[in-house]
Design a protein that fits this description.
flat
Length: 346
């Protein structure tokens, strides 16, 4: 029941939004973009949040700061009335830190080492053809992050690397220069390349590659309102896996756990079959040409990370450690509210 809710809730909200929101009646609308040259869009910004207190502040509060650099690039061309090619690149990286009591001098506060609070690399290239109700499309997507800090044994740069190729059909409900409402359904092939530790001490690392494929449903919504003082952007991706190349490693892992009386682990052979959901939402309130408030919310449910390394050459205790990192039984969510200083280059 929980799995169904995590996949169906975003879908129901999208349907309700489309039926009663600004795209009501959009099912009859046409793609309003005209054939022409390439259109480029580049926005760079800095999200900031900061506070500080004197050492003798009576409330005992501690200061903190958080910042995130972001860049959104889009290149789109309507080659003809029936052929559109859109490319997007989103980059985000941010850090946060807070004041703590100096262990060597309790009368003063010091700033702790900053930790990552935001990290994303997302590249998409989508081509769609036709002007009918449902039209074919092809998409390539690459996802990663600048710094992977998910493993307490150590960090990796640009890990994992995820490559997706999708073929399917798309339905465009609304498409203008500043607004968009479309949905896609297709079959996706995914390649996952990851670095992982091969021992409990974090001394040995190796590169692991897995492949999987399944049905993917993606819906994108972009619309301005209140005379373009506010912008709402939403992206929902639901993936239902059909096959996975590392099922043998997962079955062998379950058998090793069952045969071992000293190490604790759980059976996970069927976890790769659970559908995953990634729902990202951004509401932007434009204060001035370069100043805005950004409210961001993301909901992710992925019970098993397909890039998890469980190869049989590792000791069982190291495989258990990797499995613990790759299994997420509950949905993950992230919310940020920040003052953004941004500049649109073109």
């Amino acid at each position: 029941m929980k799995r169904f809710t995590l996949v169906a809730l975003p879908l129901m909200m999208f349907l309700a939004f489309a039926a009663g929101g600004p795209f009501a009646g959009a099912a009859r609308a046409q793609d309003e973009t005209e054939p022409g040259p390439w259109k480029f869009y580049l926005l760079a910004g800095l999200n900031i949040n900061q506070s500080a207190f004197s050492n003798n502040w009576s409330g005992g509060d501690m200061g903190s700061y958080a910042w995130a650099l972001k860049s959104n690039f889009r290149a789109e061309r309507q080659f003809s009335e029936s052929w559109n090619w859109t490319n997007t690149l989103n980059l985000v990286y941010g850090l946060t830190a807070k004041q703590v009591e100096n262990p060597d001098n309790p009368s003063e506060n010091v700033w702790e080492h900053p930790d990552k609070n935001n990290d994303q690399i997302l590249l998409e290239s989508t081509s769609r053809w036709g002007k009918r109700s449902f039209n074919p499309y092809a998409q390539f997507r690459f996802e990663s992050q600048f710094l992977d800090k998910s493993d307490p044994r150590g960090d990796f740069n640009f890990n994992p690397l995820r490559f997706n190729e999708t073929l399917g059909v798309t339905k465009v409900f609304k498409k203008t220069e500043k607004s968009e409402f479309l949905t896609r359904l297709g079959f996706t092939f995914r390649q996952n390349v990851s670095q992982a530790f091969q021992d409990l001490d974090g001394d040995v690392t190796a590169t692991n590659t897995t492949n999987d494929g399944g049905i993917e449903w993606q819906t994108n919504v972009v619309f301005p309102f209140d005379n373009e003082r506010f912008f709402f952007k939403s992206r929902l991706v639901v993936f239902v896996p059909i096959y996975y190349s590392a099922t043998g490693d997962m079955e062998a892992y379950d058998q090793a756990i069952a045969d071992n009386d000293t190490l604790y682990g759980e059976a996970i052979a069927d976890y790769w079959k659970v559908p995953s959901t990634d729902w990202q939402n951004t509401l932007t309130a434009q204060i001035s040409e370069v100043l805005s408030m950004d409210l961001y919310f993301q909901l992710v449910y992925e019970k098993f990370d397909p890039s998890t390394d469980l190869n049989l050459e590792m000791p069982l205790d190291a495989r258990i450690a990797n499995a613990d990192i790759g299994i997420r039984k509950k949905a993950q969510w992230k919310q940020t509210l920040a003052l953004a200083i941004s500049y649109r280059f073109f």
